[in-house]
């Protein structure tokens, strides 16, 4: 039962948050934390568990956001129905990037992810169908409940919480399955894992496809809440940065790492933006850059890693 | 062949020479230490701003800015090695990639704070105006930059293959422990490699600044071009980077001419995906 203590406390806190903090700013903040926690948890599957660092994960986020709003713009159907389209696009793109690169050293994968994200941003910026540089909007006035358009952030909060629970559930299941076992072996030593019969590229690819699909769901949820996406908010490199920094700060490869990272960084960014205005955005990312460098230099296993290594001897990594 | 097409081809090759120069720095580090510097494009960006500052403060052209940028960037490279890279190299993959990626963000957004988001450029006639040879019009700045870049890349290749310093660096990249037993200090050699790679990047940045827009985010585009060049050329190969750089300059130029300026990067990025699928070892890499 002791193992369920912390997840239990976290669950109660998360369920009670909107009832305790009742101002619109606080409730919106809570919803944003959960939204980014979903995206960062999805990143964690490939970045943390498989140890393949995607620096262009925003392309999958963009798939979800654009699929939802493009479907609404061109057919009038509720944006939420775009979610499966977004997942399909994300998984397809992930297969195109992952199939060749996951056979090579991890650097190729990282370079390919950043190039594909930039490619997607450039193509979208020049494609009228996807709103070009102007972007796409959702149904600002809800027509039916299916539009999932609310003024309050509380319905989004609980919707995101449900999706986060599903995402973490999938991650937890994967962690305990044969795939999770192989992934840990590959991350520690790919050569050794291969010699024991793990088909490394295929296992990594499965993790990548799963991660891409879930990231796309986060993109669709973003589109539902904000009802707007443009190349910067849906495909900008900074979204990729947020996903990886949240997972890495909290603890990459740990189930609750991304949630912890999101709970620290999202309020930090929102508060600095509201205090400093537009100037704050640039400053936030100087700070993000510094945090990423410091994590890499001193604590590659993040905050939760501190508690882990306190309990057991630190793992040895081979480069 | 029309004169315009010849002009496009020559222009592309000259631009490609600069791509080759700054990609050589990336491929040198990668081949030697198996580390990809994700801040590489932002090193070029910093060098471009240095060229701008030299022009504004000293009124100097490339004759002043190229050496200043080379020395400043070499210093930044060596500092980056000792303060960051040396430590993250021994860590897990995530530390290696996040380390230089974080450095890239730090440089990019510090520059936003320091210089603003506006696009800057050096005056067109800073280097001798425009020439007309056989009906082809060429900007002097591009010709000078292209030729200097070719010479520096060739020099870099000779340094690596024909000098004792180059042999020592090769020894470290082959087997650091064995090199150490021969009395070569691996961390010195690696620091020197970072100095040389970043210095070459500094030269490339100061050269490209004479005809390219300068902005804090220009490094992202340039970094991806360097990735494509290195992947196409073959990892660790300076001659490979040279051929690939020229080829990519040419492809960009021709695609800008035939299908429009906004699509030139798209074509290059798609080429990258093709290389990864069909020739991941690159043109000159070992498979």
UniProtKB/TrEMBL annotation, chain A:
Subcellular location(s) of the protein: Cell membrane
Gene Ontology MF terms: branched-chain amino acid transmembrane transporter activity
GO cellular component, one term: plasma membrane
Membrane-traversing stretches: 28-46, 58-77, 83-102, 156-174, 205-224, 244-268, 280-298
Chief localization: membrane
Keyword tRNA processing set for record: no
Signal sequence coordinates: none
Superkingdom to which the source organism belongs: Bacteria
UniProt keywords, alphabetically: Cell membrane, Membrane, Transmembrane, Transmembrane helix
InterPro entries in the record: ABC_transp_permease, LivM-like
Membrane topology of this protein: Multi-pass membrane protein
Protein name: Amino acid/amide ABC transporter membrane protein 2 (HAAT family)
Origin species: Enterovirga rhinocerotis
Automatic annotation (TrEMBL), chain B:
Main location (coarse class): membrane
UniProt-annotated location(s): Cell membrane
Similarity remark: Belongs to the binding-protein-dependent transport system permease family. LivHM subfamily.
Bilayer topology annotation: Multi-pass membrane protein
UniProt cross-references to InterPro entries, sorted A to Z: ABC_transp_permease (IPR001851), BCAA_transport_permease (IPR052157)
CDD domains: TM_PBP1_LivH_like
Superkingdom in the source lineage: Bacteria
Keywords: Amino-acid transport, Cell membrane, Membrane, Transmembrane, Transmembrane helix, Transport
GO aspect biological process, one term: amino acid transport
Origin species: Enterovirga rhinocerotis
Bilayer-crossing regions: 6-31, 38-58, 64-85, 97-120, 140-160, 191-215, 221-250, 257-278
GO cellular component: plasma membrane
GO terms assigned for molecular function: transmembrane transporter activity
Protein name (database record): Amino acid/amide ABC transporter membrane protein 1 (HAAT family)
């Amino acid at each position: 039962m002791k193992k369920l203590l912390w997840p239990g406390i976290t669950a109660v806190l998360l369920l009670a948050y909107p009832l305790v903090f009742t101002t619109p700013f606080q409730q919106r903040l809570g919803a944003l934390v959960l939204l980014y926690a979903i995206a960062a948890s999805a990143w964690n599957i490939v970045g943390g568990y498989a140890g393949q660092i995607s620096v262009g994960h925003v392309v999958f986020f963009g798939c979800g956001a654009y699929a939802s709003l493009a479907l609404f713009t061109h057919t009038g159907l509720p944006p939420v129905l775009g979610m499966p389209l977004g997942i399909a696009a994300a998984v397809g793109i992930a297969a195109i990037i992952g199939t060749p690169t996951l056979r090579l050293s991890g650097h190729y994968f990282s370079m390919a992810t950043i190039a594909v994200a930039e490619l997607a941003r450039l193509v979208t910026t020049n494609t009228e169908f996807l709103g070009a540089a102007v972007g796409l909007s959702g149904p600002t006035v809800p027509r039916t409940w299916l539009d999932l358009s609310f003024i309050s952030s509380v319905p989004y909060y609980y919707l995101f919480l449900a999706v986060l629970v599903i995402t973490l559930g999938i991650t937890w299941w994967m962690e305990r399955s044969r795939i999770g076992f192989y992934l840990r072996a590959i991350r520690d030593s790919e050569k050794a894992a291969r010699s024991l019969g793990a088909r490394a590229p295929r296992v990594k690819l499965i993790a990548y496809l799963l991660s891409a699909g879930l990231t796309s769901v986060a993109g669709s949820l973003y589109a539902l809440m904000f009802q707007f996406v443009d190349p910067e908010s849906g495909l900008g490199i900074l979204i990729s940065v947020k996903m990886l920094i949240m997972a890495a700060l909290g603890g990459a490869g740990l189930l609750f790492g991304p949630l912890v990272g999101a709970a620290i960084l999202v309020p930090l960014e929102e508060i600095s933006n509201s205090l400093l205005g537009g100037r704050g955005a640039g400053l936030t990312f100087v700070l993000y850059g510094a945090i990423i460098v410091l994590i890499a230099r001193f604590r590659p296993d993040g905050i939760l890693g501190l508690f882990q290594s306190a309990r057991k001897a630190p793992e040895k990594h081979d480069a | 062949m029309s004169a315009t097409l010849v002009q496009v081809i020559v222009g592309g090759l000259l631009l490609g020479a600069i791509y080759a120069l700054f990609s050589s720095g990336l491929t040198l580090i990668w081949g030697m230490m198996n580390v990809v510097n994700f801040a590489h494009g932002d090193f070029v960006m910093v060098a471009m701003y240095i060229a701008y500052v030299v022009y504004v403060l000293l009124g100097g052209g490339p004759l002043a800015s190229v050496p200043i940028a080379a020395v400043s960037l070499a210093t930044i490279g060596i500092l980056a090695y000792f303060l960051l890279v040396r430590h993250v190299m021994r860590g897990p993959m995530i530390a290696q990639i996040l380390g230089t990626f974080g450095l890239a963000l730090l440089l990019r957004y510090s520059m936003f704070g320091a210089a603003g988001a506006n696009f800057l450029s050096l005056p067109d006639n800073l280097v001798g105006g425009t020439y007309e040879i056989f009906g082809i019009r060429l900007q002097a700045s591009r010709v000078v930059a292209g030729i200097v870049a070719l010479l520096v890349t060739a020099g870099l290749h000779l340094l690596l293959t024909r000098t004792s310093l180059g042999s020592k660096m090769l020894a470290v990249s082959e087997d650091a422990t064995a090199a150490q037993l021969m009395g070569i200090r691996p961390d010195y050699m690696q620091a020197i490699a970072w100095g040389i790679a970043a210095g070459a990047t500094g030269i490339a940045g100061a050269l490209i600044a004479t005809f390219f827009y300068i902005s804090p985010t220009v490094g992202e585009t340039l970094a991806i071009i360097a990735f494509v060049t290195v992947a196409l050329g073959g990892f660790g190969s300076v001659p490979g980077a040279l051929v690939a750089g020229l080829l990519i300059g040419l492809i960009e130029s021709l695609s800008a001419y035939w299908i429009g300026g906004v699509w030139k990067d798209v074509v290059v990025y798609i080429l990258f995906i093709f290389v990864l699928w069909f020739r991941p070892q690159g043109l000159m890499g070992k498979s």
